[in-house]
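JOB MANIFEST
job_type = single_chain_structure
chain_count = 1
residues = 555
[input]
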Amino acid sequence: MTPATWETPQFEDDDPSAPGRPLPTLVSLHFLRSALRRRRVACVLSALLGLLVSGAFLLAFPLPNDANALLTLTSDSQVDPSAPLATDVRLLTSRTVAAQTIETLGLTMKPEDFVSSLTVEPVSSSLVSITLSAPTHAEAVRRLETLTSVYLAFRAEELTAQSRILIDGMNQHIAELQVESDELKQRITQLSAAGSSSQTELSEAISARTRVDAQIETLQDAVQDATLKSASVTSSSRVIDAAAAEEGGIKRRIALILASGLIAGTAIGCGIVVFLAITSDRLRRRYDVAAALEVPVPVSVGRIAPLPRRWLWLPQMRKLDARRAEERQRLAHAIEMELPLRARWGRLAVACVDNADEVRFAVAAAAVDLAARGSSVLLIDLTEHGGLDAAVGQLMTDETVDRPTVLRPTGVPSLAGGPADLHPVVHEDAAGDDPSHGATDVRLVLADVDASVGADHLRAWTERLVIVVTAGLSSAERVRTTADLVRAAGLDLRFAALLRANSTDESSGMAGLDRPGPIHLREGDGRAAATGSKQDQKLGRLAPSNPPAPGRSSG
């Protein structure tokens, strides 16, 4: 046989379009927007997941129900207000007040736990705000009311005790001075009876008694003032705003937590999508696939695999399945149009790039359509996992149409060298039939292209080939290697098709590339001749002059 040859174009060392160089990725706002639109479902699911996580957090760690009260705590006006206020705040959070409150309420918690549920905030020199958390609003109000009453009573007792100590000290001093005054009074009486001989001593005694009586009067006034001040401080310290539940605060915090979870989930989802879009080398755009394969990508469709019948009872699923059928028929029509003209007779291979499970439905649809037109169709399934016959059976709806024959290799698909290595895939309708390996109108080959094996084995079945790539599934290097293996095997790579194309892809798969010309049947011998295209001439691809017979290996 004549090996395939082509001229290698000359490229400069720094030419980015030279073969083997990675395709550049243009990171722009349009690129990022397209990535986010393409993965909008993932972004929405991430946002919902963040919302669910924040909701689970609220269920696992429920927000405490708060109650608030405002107290006025007066003190001696002659003392710096900051000092008594610090003392009052410390008394509020003391273990003694907490223990008395717990005992009054009949709770079983520790004083430390009760103190930890308190928040004391000085508002001014005489105002203190108290916030208490509890399992419910009613319980928070009950606990705070008890706390304020216990605290005010405890504070009044402490202030009264301090005032009592001071008053007792002054009363004791008054009693001592009163004894001294009585002694001086007796001495004055004695000196007055003694006559003029003791005038000097009498004057001194009178002066001393006068001073002692003045001290007694001063201390008595101080006792009276201290008593009045203690009563005034105790009576003026009271609750200004009674304990009340803070219902608006907890609703606001719940809303903030849920909003934070939603925003965090959205940010994480969008960040992951953008990061993967920037760092991924998988091909998604028609332009990138065409540049990697160096052939046009005139056909781009969505998903083509039919939905399971158990889902079709839903109206939306039926619409989706009908849409997939339309997309599948478009790709099948493109495969049919690559067969030679006139009778659509000939052989054609469809190469899969990691997507045989879905491409088999397009090949089966093309085979069923050709069989419905009266052509005898032979399908050769060279994929690793098979399933082409099952796809044909799933798409066959007209029982009057002859079912296409499906053949599978008896061993490794890449080692099948001819019809002798194939066996029919038996199905219920054809059980007992003996499918012929002889001449057929159409022979379609579905094959995987493995980089470790190559594509030489496909020359035993056909000379022409199309490649189907799934958007976002295969890397640029994988797609480029597939095209190189096909050309190295001397096969005529006609065009490429893109599966699962995204609606955000606005690129062209035809820019700078010309599709190969149509294939016409030669008069007399039934052989197919291809009209060369500009792209074929540019790449120097030549079809083999003596292609192997259907039963011979390319060796």
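[summary]
The first strand starts at residue 65 and ends at 72.
The chain has three domains: 30-62+260-279, 65-245, 281-539.
exit_status = 0
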